[in-house]
Design a protein that fits this description.
Layout (H helix, E strand, L loop, with lengths): L2 E3 L4 H7 L7 E2 L14 H17 L5 E12 L2 E3 L5 H11 L3 E14 L2 E15 L4 H8 L13 H8 E5 L2 H5 L3 H13 L15
Parallel strand pairs: 1-2, 1-3
Antiparallel strand pairs: 3-4, 3-5, 5-6, 6-7
Helix pairs in contact: 3-4
C-alpha cells in the first residue's frame, strides 16, 4: 500500500518514519491564507483536510496523511510569519506567555472500495520564557523562524525559548505521533489499511 505525506516539512517526515518505513512526499500547494475561520481548531482541521483532499485528487490508490499546526494566543490564531518583521512581532507577543499549539491530522484512504477519511487534532500548552529584544534579534539572524507557526521551532530553540510544555512534545514539533497511531489503529480495525504496512503501530 502506498503512503503519502501531504507536506514538505522535514520535521514531519522524520517523525512519520518512526511509524511508516516508506512513503512518498507530495506537497499539497494549498494556500492557507484562503481558509476563512477564526477558530484555531476549526482552521487547523480545515487546512489539514484541504491538504489531504488536494493530493487525493491525483491519487488512485493510497493513504494520504496531512497535518497542519497553528498557535493560539488568548483565542487568536498566530500563523506563520510573512517576513522578518512579522516574526519579530510574533515572538514579542508570545514572549512570557502561555499559548496553545494545535496540530490537526487528516488521513484519506483511497482505493477501489472507495474513499475513507478521518480527522482529529491534538493540543499542547507551551509557556515561553521572557525573551529579551537582543535575543529575538539574534534569533532572527538565522532562518529558523521561516515557515513555522509561532515563528519558532521547539526542537531547535527549546532550551532558549521554552519554560515548560504540558502535553505532547511531538505535537509542538508538528506531528502528534501518539494521535496519529490512534487514527491509524482505527483504520486497521476497520480493515481500511493493513497492519503489515505500518511499523511500531502496536507499541505504546
Amino acid at each position: 500500500m502506498r503512503f503519502i505525506l501531504a507536506s514538505a516539512s522535514p520535521r514531519r517526515e522524520e517523525l512519520l518514519r518512526t511509524l511508516i518505513p516508506s512513503f512518498d512526499v507530495i506537497k499539497s500547494g494549498i494556500d492557507e491564507s484562503l481558509i476563512d475561520d477564526t477558530n484555531a481548531v476549526e482552521f487547523a482541521l480545515k487546512a489539514s483536510e484541504a491538504k489531504a483532499e488536494s493530493v487525493a485528487l491525483n491519487i488512485k490508490n493510497g493513504v494520504i496523511i496531512s497535518a497542519d499546526t497553528v498557535v493560539s494566543l488568548n483565542g487568536s490564531i498566530i500563523g506563520k510569519p510573512q517576513n522578518e518583521r512579522d516574526a519579530y512581532d510574533i515572538l514579542s507577543r508570545l514572549s512570557g506567555s502561555e499559548h496553545v499549539v494545535i496540530t490537526s491530522l487528516c488521513i484519506i484512504v483511497k482505493n477501489n472500495k472507495g474513499i475513507k477519511k478521518i480527522s482529529d487534532y491534538e493540543e499542547t500548552i507551551v509557556k515561553m520564557k521572557e525573551l529579551k529584544e537582543e535575543e529575538i534579534i539574534s534569533y532572527l539572524s538565522s532562518s529558523n523562524w521561516e515557515d513555522k507557526a509561532g515563528a519558532y521551532a521547539i526542537q531547535e530553540n527549546g532550551d532558549k525559548f521554552i519554560e515548560y510544555i504540558i502535553g505532547d512534545y511531538h505535537n509542538v514539533v508538528g506531528l502528534p505521533v501518539k494521535k496519529l497511531k490512534k487514527l491509524l489503529t482505527q483504520l486497521i480495525s476497520s480493515r481500511a489499511i493493513k497492519l503489515s504496512s505500518i511499523r511500531n503501530i502496536t507499541k505504546t
